[in-house]
Amino acid sequence: MSDRNRNDNSRYTRRLETIEERNRQLRQHEANHAAHHIGEDVQGIKKVRRVANRHRVLSILLPFLVVLLIALYVISPLSKVNHVQVSGNKEVNAAAVKSATGVHNGRYIWGLIDHADRVQARARQKNHQIKTVRITATGLRSVKVAITENNIIGLVSVHGRQHYLLSNGSQAPVHGRVPNYVTYANFTGHAGCLRKTARQIGQLPRSIREGISEVQLSPTKASPERVKLYMNDGNLVIANISTLGRKMKYYPSIVSSMSGKGVVNIQVGAFSYPYGNNKKK
Q1: How far from chain centre, in Å, is Cα 35?
Q2: What pLDDT is recorded for position 6?
Q3: At the topology level of CATH, where does 78-149 sit?
Q4: CA distances (Å), origin 2, targets 7, 9, 10, 61
Q5: Which residues, in sequence order, are CB contacts of 47 under 8 Å at separation 6+?
Q6: Which listed residue, of 11, 78, 133, 134, carries a Cα 20 to 30 Å from 27's Cα?
Q7: 103 and 134 in contact (C-beta within 8 Å)?
C-alpha cells in the first residue's frame, strides 16, 4: 500500500473516532440531562408529598389541640369568674342583682354566657324589679351584668303589709323602712284594675309620677274604671284607667292654665274647674 493510501486511511480513521467521540459525549450529555431531570422530578414529588403529609397532619392535629385547649380552659380555674360588674341598676342594688341572677365569683363564665336566657328567667322570678338581664364577658374571668328595671311606682297594702307596686303590674316585698311613695287605695278585690293602673302610670314621665300622692279606685256604674289621683300640688285628677297613661301626660299644660287649685277631669276629653264647683266628681 502506498504512503498516500495509508495517510488517507489514517485520516478517515481519526475522523470516525472524532465522530464517535462526539456521539458518545452527546449520548452521555443526554443521559446526564435525563438523569438530572428525573432527579429533579423525584425531588419535586418528594417535596409535594412532604407538604401534603404536613398539611394532613396539621389538619388532624390542630383541631384536636384547639378542642383540648378549650376543654382544659372549661374545667380549669381560669374559666371561673373573679370579677362581676353590675350596670343599669337604679333602684335594685348590685348585691340584689347578683343574688337574683346567681352571677358571683366562682361561677364558670361559660355557663353564664351559654345559659343567659335561663339566668334572665331566674332573675325575673326571684326579683320582680328586674325586667331584663344581659350578660357579656369583659375578660377571661370577668363579666358584666347589665339590667333594666321595672320601676317602682308606688306602695300597695296586701293583707296588712306594704308591697312595692311595679310598672309592669307586679309586686315586690318592702324590706326595712317603708319609703315615701305613691299609695294605692280601694283596690282590694280588684287585682286586675290594680295591674292595669300600674302599667298605665308606668308609662308616665318620672316628673309626673313623682307629683302623685295617692291613686284611689273610685268606680261608678257608668264608669267602672274610674280612678282619682290626689296630686302633691293640691289638685285632684279624675281619670279612666284605660286612658290614664295617654291623657295624664297633658296634666302639666292643663294645670298651667288654671287660676287656682281644683279638679282636672280627663275621663272624656280634658277640662278643669275650681274646688267648690257643682260639677260632678
Answers
A1: 68
A2: 58
A3: Ubiquitin-like (UB roll) (3.10.20)
A4: 9, 11, 12, 87
A5: none
A6: 11
A7: no
Average pLDDT of the residues in 52-67: 72
Q: What's the pLDDT tens digit per position in 107-135?
A: 888 778 778 888 899 999 999 999 999 99
pLDDT at 240: 96
Q: Contact, 212 vs 264, CB < 8 A?
A: no
* Residue 108: all three cell numbers together: 364558670
Q: Do domains 78-149 and 152-274 have the same CATH topology?
A: no
Q: Which tens digits make up the pLDDT trace of 152-196? A: 999 998 888 889 999 999 998 887 776 778 999 999 889 999 999
- The arrangement of secondary structure in 152-274, i.e. its CATH architecture, is 3-Layer(aba) Sandwich (3.40)
Confidence band, pLDDT 50/70/90 cuts, at residue 241: very high
Domain boundaries, the chain: 1-75, 78-149, 152-274
Q: Which residues contact 273 (CB under 8 A, 6 or more apart)?
A: 262, 263, 265, 279
Cβ–Cβ under 8 Å, residues 127 and 117: no
* Length of the chain, in residues: 281
> For residue 279, what is its C-alpha cell?
260639677
Side chain identity, residue 178: V
d(CA 139, CA 207): 39
